[in-house]
Predict the structure.
Amino acid sequence: MRGNMKPIEIVKGLYDVGVSDWNIRDFHGYSTNQGTSYNAFLVLDDKIALVDTVKKEFSDQLIENISKIVDPKSIDCVISNHTEMDHSGGLPRIMHKIGEDKPLYCSKMGAKHLARHFPQNLNYHAVGTGEELSLGNRTFTFLETRMIHWPDSMFTYLKEDKILFSSDGFGQHYAGYEKFDDQIGEEILEHAKKYYANILLLYSPLIINLLRKVTDLGLEIDIICPDHGVIWRKDPGKIIAAYAKWAEQKPEKKALVIYDTMWRSTEIMAEEIAAGIADEGVPVRPIHLRKYHRSDVMTEVLDAGAIIIGSPTLNNQLFPTVSDILTYMKGLKPKNKIGAAFGSYGWSGESIGLINNELKEMKFDIIDPSVKIQYVPDEEGKAACFEFGKKIGKAVNDLLAE
Ligand code: FEO
C-alpha cells in the first residue's frame, strides 16, 4: 500500500501505478526480507496503455492507483511482458474493469500461457521481436526474451522516450518509498545481486546473448523500468554492466564453507577449514545452514571461487539442510568454481560421497581427498582440516592466477 500517494510520474505521461508488498517474507522460497513491489506502468498518449499488472490480491490497489490518473475504462490496451502470476494475477480483474474486448499484447508463448492461467476469453494479440505498437506519438517495440526467465518473457521498449520495460530483468525484491536508483544509492545493487543469483543465474548464457543483442540493435536506454523494485534512471548502464559481470560468472577471491552440524563436530571442522583458507589470504566465511536462508547463501555463491560443503551423516544420508542447498544450487547452475566436501560421521559416513557426487554434477573442480572424521575431531583431525583449508586456499589463488 502506498496510501494516498499519487502514482509517481516517471517522465511526462508515464506513471508507476504498481503496489508495494511490504510484508511478504517468502517469495516461493526466496527470503524477501525487505518485501517487494509489483510495478505496473501507465502510458498516456492518444491511446492509453497499461504495461503489466500486479499480484491478484493487489488488484484493487492497482485500479485505485490508475483511477488517480485516468478512468480505468479509458485504457485502450494492456501489455503483459510475462505470465508469472505476480505480474498477471491482476489481469482478469483489470480486463473486466476496462473491457475484455480490449487488446492484450503478449508474446506468442504468453498468449498460450496466459490462457492456461485464466479461463476468460481475452483478446490476445501475440507479438514478436521487432513488432511495433503505436499509441499516437509514442511507439512500443517488443523484444522476446525467451527463457529469461520464462518461455513467454519479453521486454517492451518505448522508442521515443528510450525507456525499457524489462519485466523481471534488472529487478530487485525491495519495497520502499524510494522508487528510483538515485533515491536509494548503492545498497540496491545488493538486492539486484540477490535477485540475479536466485532467479536468473541459470540463464546466464542467454543473458550474455541478450546483452549482445541489445548492443547490436543499438538500443539506447535512458531508463529501465523493471517489474520489481526501483527504476534505473540515474545510471541504467550500471545495472547492465552488473548483469554482464554476473552472467560471466568469473570467480572472485572468495570461499564459502557451507555446512550444518549435529553435535558441533562438523562445525569445528568448518571453522578449521575456513581458518586454513584464510591463512592462504583468501577471504572466507563459514555459513551455518540453519542460520542463513538458502537465498542469502546463493547470493554469496554467485561470485565465490570455492564452495566447500560439510555435512554430518544422518541415517546414511546428508543432513536435510545440506540436501536442500545442494538441490537449490544445482538448479541455478553456478559455474567456474572449486568444490570440496567434508563432514563428521558416527558409523557409516556416506555424506562425503553424496556431496562430491553433487559437486561433480555441477562440474566444480573437486579438491581431493575430502576430510571425513569419526565422531569428534581431535587435534590431529583439526590439523588435517586446517591443511585441507590451506590446500583449497592455494587452489583458489592458482585459479585466479590462470
Ligand atoms: Fe516477478 Fe517471474 O515474476
In short: The chain has a mean pLDDT of 97. The longest strand covers residues 252-259.
